[in-house]
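Replying to the earlier thread about multi-chain prediction with a worked example.

Input:
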Amino acid sequence: MTTVLFYILGLITVLATLMAITRRNPVHSVIYLVNSFFALALLFYLLGAPLVAAWEVIIYAGAIMVLFLFIIMMLELAPTQETDQMGPNWWQWLPVLLLSLGLVSCTLMLIGLDSAGPQGIPNWYATPRDFGYALFGKYGLAVEVVSFQLLFAAVGAFYVGKPESRQKKIKKEGS
Amino acid sequence: MIVPLEHVLFLSAILFMLGLGCVLARRNLIMILIGVEIMLNAVGLTLVGASAFWQQIDGQIMVIFLMAMTSAEVSISLAMVVYLNRRKGTVDVRAFDEMRG
Amino acid sequence: MNPLLLFLIPALPLLGGVFNTCFGSRLPQRAVAAIAVASVACSFVLTVFLWSLGAGEGTRTVLFSWLKSSGFQADVGLLFDPLATIMTLMVTGVATLIHLYAAGYMAHDQNQARFFALLNLFVFAMLCIVLADNLLFLFLGWEGVGFCSYGLIGFWYRKAENASAGRKAFIVTRIGDLFFAIALLWLFRLFGTIAIDQINGRAAEIDPQMLTVLVLLLLGGACGKSAQLPLMTWLPDAMAGPTPVSALIHAATMVTAGVYLLCRMFPLVSLSPTGMGAIALIGMLTALYAASCAVSQREIKRVLAYSTMSQIGYMFFAVGVGTVSGAMFHLLTHAFFKALLFMGAGCVIHLAGGENDIYRMGGLKQKSPLVFWLFLAGILCLAGTPLTGGFFSKDAILLTAFARGDAFFALLWGLGVLTAGVTSFYSFRLLYLVFLGAERQNEKGHELSPLMLWTLPLLALFGLFGGLLNLPHLFGGHEWLGHWLGQPVGVVLPVGTELGLLLLMLIFFVGGWLIAHLRYRTFPGDEQAGWRNFLLQGWRFDTLYEFILLRPYRLLCRFCWQGGDKALIDGVVEGLGQLWMHWGGYARRLSTGQIGFYLQGFAWGFLLILGWFLLMSVK
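Result:
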């Protein structure tokens, strides 16, 4: 059963990604991508990485894609026309709807599944405890380095995105 | 494992190619960044698949690091997109060719 | 008397020259001149003092070993034998007088430091030639005089013709130096040593044909330095230098270096009859050629230059005939009267206000009688007036030639007598045109400094009474010089023949004087005839050399420059550069600045790498 589920989820992922890369409106693209990431998270769960699956949803779909949306909306990159004010047409909703329905059904199936594989042997999976031991044990240094990197990123993003100071603006307009 | 490793890798390859196509074919900076995200996810899938195959946790740890770095990268690149948009008023990549030879 | 003191003789002028080079520009002009004169004068005094070391076999001293490697040894050593003694005395003595003269002549020049430094260095180099005990040290001096001569001829180098005259002198004498260098190396190969006395001692060991070639090579070297045919074209142009330079270098010292070399190597040279014949022939032909050219020269110093060439031809002739004492005798008297004549010419040029052309001078006797009488003394010696020094020396050579007896030397003797007549003619021509007759120019003359005037009488005395150095037996003398050099000629001809020949010389002398007197006593002005022009330009040798040597050389150089250097080398090097730049232009188009283009590059590269790995894994 999990095998079939794997292929279905794989199909959903590919379709969602395909839809994502072919949209003109970046917001639509992000939505489809969230779909794709959710399916991917379920795939991770099937492959014995429940923690990674959780993180995929939280970090990727929850933080990164939201950041994308923020920027898109801040820069007003998405086309807003008269017709859009009425909301998109029903057939534009269809792909998302179908994909999301598929995802929900897969999730439900997963919840109700037996954790044993086709041979009846329980699949191997990584518990948080194993994860903790490995992450802060063997890979402890890497954790520190990554935390530095996040700091750099924060500083860099702050600096790059800083608005022009008033004096610079006056100078620019005066020249 | 529930499926042979080859199938996982196949799926991952397809996702990667899709991401690459997005990067190459789109003119919008945001879309390019989204393509990069897709590619990174494909890599993550490969890592998790390998981890499941060898039944070791190291692959998943690599994935978490990958996610951490991706978030850092996205934050800076989106900040740069904001800056570039301020400079040129557009996010079309063809506008940013001042480094031509 | 320590023989090492001999080293001070060349060392003092060297020190003076080096001192003036380093510090001369900071000292007052008089100090510079004083240092230069003092160093050469001390050298002269030292030579007189150490005179006796040179008697008999002479003294050989070595200061230190200069070069020493696998069989080749060249020391800084001096061979102070009778020949060297005489020559050193002459060089230092005449040099002292000329330095004094130059102090007066160059009194208004700005670059006296350079002048006197070069002059001192020249004396040093000449003394190296004279005193050296091995051929390499001699060659050092040989090259040194060439270089100093170049520097001094082209002293006023800002005028292009002076600089090119210096260059011409250097290059033409260099050709001679090449022959000398080959002879030097060959002698080393034959004997394993380059010490002069050893080579002279063992000269009989060489195979006769090789010996002839060696002698001809040495002759080639001597011809270059002494301005004999065919390497004589530089001497007339060398008159572009200041007059003291002409007096010192081109009358008394450098041009006699060739004669001196042949005399030094005489034991070697005399063993080859063909070589001696060649020397005699070259000498006499040059004498005749130069005398003929001097007949029609217009510049006073050029007349004297050709005259020098002619007299040195006589000295070569003497060596070829086999009498070293005759050659040295003539060398000595010639040094005296030629230096006198050149210095007198300097005075004349000053008196005439810088004018060089004798056709525009005249009647200078009234301006300065003293200069006239001194110049007259020199002219009388040059022309071979009986009982002057010039007479005795020239006749000694011709008599020895006549005494040889064979047809070849008799022919040359005849030419010698003819040349003596021509010499008398052009000497008196010079005298008449410059000093006598009506004044043909209107220039106001310059004052003569006493230094310039009062160094001349001593030379006049030596010139007139120089015959006493080597009086032949006919006149009751004892051939002092001949005995000193160890080669007395003795009595070779019966008295009657000798008197007859002397009478012949007298007839030619008087004849030359008469023709000059009749023609130039009252001289109207310019005279230009076709054959005169030919003689004026030195039988057009310059043009000949220009055509057969210089033009092809320039063509070759031009070819190497344009074809070889520019087209080939520059073409390849710059062509390569252009090629890279061209291809770089293509490569430049790869950086479009378009992000999409770069990303595509990534993708394609990624594809290639992937394909490569796949290929590798399949194998």
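Chains C and A do not touch (no CB pair under 8 Å).

Feel free to reuse this layout for your own posts.
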